[in-house]
Amino acid sequence: MDTALYLGLFVVSLAVLLKASDWFIDSAERVGLSLGISPFIIGVTIVAFGTSLPELATSIASVFSGESEIVIGNVVGSNITNIALVLGLAAVVVKKIELEYNIWHIDMPYLWGSAFLLWLALRDLHFSLFEGILFTLGIIIFLAYSFQSQQGEEKLESMVKPGWKTYALLLLGGGLVYLGADYTIFAIKKLSAIAGINPEIIALSAVALGTSLPEVIVSLNAAQRGKASIAVGNVLGSNIFNTYIVMGIPSFFGPLKVPPNINDLFLPLMLAMTILFGIMSNNRKITRWEGAVLLMFYAFFCASLIEGAF
Known about the structure:
Elements (H helix, E strand, L loop, with lengths): L1 H33 L4 H13 L1 H12 L4 H25 L2 E3 L8 H15 L4 E2 L1 H21 L14 H32 L3 H13 L1 H12 L4 H20 L7 E2 L8 H15 L4 E3 H22 L1
Antiparallel strand pairs: 1-4, 2-3
């Protein structure tokens, strides 16, 4: 009975977290447009940050609840899920993803850099405050480059001012994100205690998949509309933000525990998936067969989690 209760709480709180994140992002985007901020700048700040908001909220909540090992599981699991599942599904839905721009100019090297930096930072099974500051600096550099590359873009002159409902949804969304994250972590603690499973296993699987659902939905919708290249940008941006922000900011609120088994399989798998992503996109296209290979890696990831849980 307790298991069903806490499982229901986990599903409901995660659903509230995802829906509240949508409200927060949409409202913040409208406010930004009303202030004359260019759509690109909104995209690389509000929207990009918003896609990592569920991961960030659950990670901060886990630090306050004393289950900080969930942070690493959340980041590594989400990054693997984004590449193997999100990109794999998008490539399988369409025959071939054609990239409209060269992601090897800055985005892919920056993604590789973030993955290798995370691997180096966790090799000693310790993530210090200094490393948290370093990771936060990494996202600031990425945003600074994005702003500089779009300096010539004109601001919007006249936009309709948002009504009271926009600001109400902004506040309500922010509040529900906090509550959703708090109860999600609470349910994880109870479920892991009942099942005798380490919390990081749940973070690597259920939380990672749940917080990646926005990316799954956006990428599949884009693929069906013939804009599958959006999926690639979505995965790139989400993984960069996940690594730098979701690892960096929670470390300001307390020390992060690093599970001993993270370096055995899951972190190397994340690194391998990141390298494979870069190799597949080198010719500016990702085929359906390559998408099938990515899904095979995700199946291996899920099987490893199940094996490790029992």
